Amino acid sequence: MSAPIRVGIGYDSHRFVAGHGVVLGGVLIPATVRCTGHSDADPACHALTDALLGAAGLGDIGEMFPDTAAENKDRDSIEMLRLAVARVRAAGWAPVQCDLTVIAETPKVGAHRPAIRERLGEALGIPASEVMIKGKTNEGMGFIGRGEGIACMAVATLARLTP
Ligand code: MG
Hints:
Blueprint: E1 5-18, E2 22-24, E3 27-29, E4 33-36, H1 43-56, H2 61-64, H3 77-90, E5 93-103, H4 113-124, E6 131-136, H5 142-145, E7 149-160
Parallel strand pairs: 5-6
Antiparallel strand pairs: 1-4, 1-7, 2-3, 5-7
The structure holds magnesium ion.
């Protein structure tokens, strides 16, 4: 018999190129860089999507949205997150809560936290109070420290839907 609560973990990273802002959790944060990737390259949405799929035992974001598929080019990551939530719910699980950590030297997340919590909560079908996002630097170390990119970690909890 499996437990009525499941926990999943997700991680994602993206390279920076010159641009006009970083999309995090569906919110555009003004910056002198942007993330590059096949979709719209939102590391918060991607890490969270993997955490949800992982908790439900449904594989990962790469299987659900292959980066070789034309329909995923420049795709809105909030839409991908919504589709993953629908799949999770269809498998009998409901998102309860999630917690994210963004690791980057810039941009800073703090001022955008309320907007990101709202946006992710809406996509998951849970109140913003059940979504947390935190920003960290990497203390100048490694690819993040050199400002080459950004990483995000996410943990999500699911509860079994009663039939
Ligand atoms: Mg990604």
